[in-house]
Design goal:
Elements (H helix, E strand, L loop, with lengths): L1 H9 L45 H6 L12 H8 L3 E8 L2 E8 L2 E7 L5 E4 L7 H7 L4 E7 L2 E8 L2 E7 L6 E3 L1 E4 L5 H6 L25 H4 L5 E3 L6 E6 L4 H15 L4 E6 L4 H4 L2 H10 L6 H7 L10 H14 L7 E5 L5 E5 L5 H6 L4
Parallel strand pairs: 11-12
Antiparallel strand pairs: 1-2, 2-3, 3-4, 4-9, 5-6, 6-7, 7-8, 10-12, 11-13, 13-14
Helix pairs in contact: 1-7, 9-11
Length: 361
């Protein structure tokens, strides 16, 4: 079920080489991805408040030039450069609302007052005063960024980030992106304890120094395997909800089936800040299975089983290892090369055959 949804999304998201940032730590929550494209050089700095006249030649260069009112806004020019067709829906509570469409997929953006960023999400009929009242004690103020204030709100084990309109009369649950495609919400919630699961390895709260290689640490993780034990092993660090992790596994699975490699799948949780804790729930479910069933459970979408008493400890250990080796997102790969050195790749493999060929015993 989860795989079916991911496959639909993959059909509309361009797959790019690993060095372009195909990592779920920077994944947009909807098919039109601001992180897949670089902002036009002339728009990188963006206009001052109030805007400046657009560069006519630059506008003509776009396949889908934005409406005239949006041509001077750094964020909307960036989305137009990504190939989306924009519709200006006017102003609401001090923010310009823009619809972006790419084929049969569309999403809404509420652009910040300075035009340098936007929140992807649909506004809800709740004011900031009302939110403070109904969620008292469960709110963390994330501060103001680009003229709007963000709030981290917990509800039991789940949480959501809300952004308040400048007048405080409207809330937008979603993720904030800047005009260069950076996920600003992740940056904000990283300061909230427990928002992004990370722990330290070692005793007395001190992190363990990374060894000369990362393979000795990854071998201490809990993982499931697919492919013969006699084949060269490729460690693959994944978030179960990450479409790039799913896509990478689809690319590599035929090689495991053919006996050319063994894939060791290490469940992690890096997307909780976007999927309301589903990544952690899925990772815990996988780590509650016997290790020889982890991969099959992930493939089949069987991630709703009861959590075992050891699952939390196993996930903490996997996350600790990921932190020590400097994981920036999923998928990530580590392997031993034929010459005995270590190989590492963060993101989708650009050349799967070359990756498989580089894996030694």
């Amino acid at each position: 079920m989860r795989w079916a949804v991911a496959l639909v999304i993959l059909s509309v998201i361009p797959v790019r080489a690993a060095e372009s940032g195909s990592l779920c730590a920077a994944l947009a929550p909807v098919p039109i991805k601001v992180t897949d494209y670089a902002a036009p050089a002339h728009a990188a700095a963006g206009p001052p408040a109030g805007g400046v006249p657009a560069d006519p030649s630059a506008t003509q260069a776009l396949s889908h030039p934005p409406p005239a009112a949006l041509a001077s806004v750094a964020f909307t020019r960036h989305i137009a450069a990504a190939g989306a067709t924009l519709t200006d829906l006017g102003f609401s509570h001090g923010m310009r609302v823009v619809a972006a469409r790419n084929g049969d997929q569309f999403m809404l953006f509420d652009v910040t007052p300075d035009g340098q960023a936007a929140v992807s999400g649909a506004p809800i009929g709740l004011s900031l005063v009302q939110l403070r009242s109904v969620a008292a004690g469960n709110i963390t103020d994330l501060g103001e960024m680009h003229g709007i204030r963000g709030f981290f709100v917990r509800s039991g084990a789940e949480f959501q980030v809300f952004y308040a309109s400048p007048d405080g009369e409207q809330l937008i649950p979603g993720v904030m992106w800047d005009a260069s495609g950076h996920d600003l919400t992740r940056q904000q919630v990283a300061r909230v304890p427990g928002a992004i699961p990370t722990v330290e390895v070692g005793t007395a709260g001190r992190a363990e120094a990374a060894p000369s290689g990362v393979l000795p640490l990854i071998k201490k993780a809990t993982f499931g395997t697919i492919g013969p034990a006699s084949a060269p092993r490729l460690y693959m660090l994944i978030d179960p909800q990450c479409i790039y992790s799913i896509r990478a596994f689809q690319m590599l699975r035929p090689y495991a089936a053919a006996g050319r490699l063994q894939i060791a799948v290490v469940p992690l949780s890096v997307l909780d800040y976007e999927d309301r804790g589903q990544s952690t729930r899925s990772a815990l479910a996988l780590l509650s299975d016997p290790t020889d069933q982890i991969v099959n459970a992930w493939q089949s979408g069987s991630e709703n089983n009861s959590v075992s008493v050891d699952a939390s400890r196993l996930l903490r250990n996997n996350m600790a290892i990921a932190r020590v080796i400097g994981l920036t997102g999923t998928p990530a790969f580590v392997w031993r090369k034929p010459d005995g050195t270590e190989g590492r790749l963060d993101g989708l493999p650009g050349d799967v055959q070359a990756l498989v060929a580089s894996i030694g015993s």
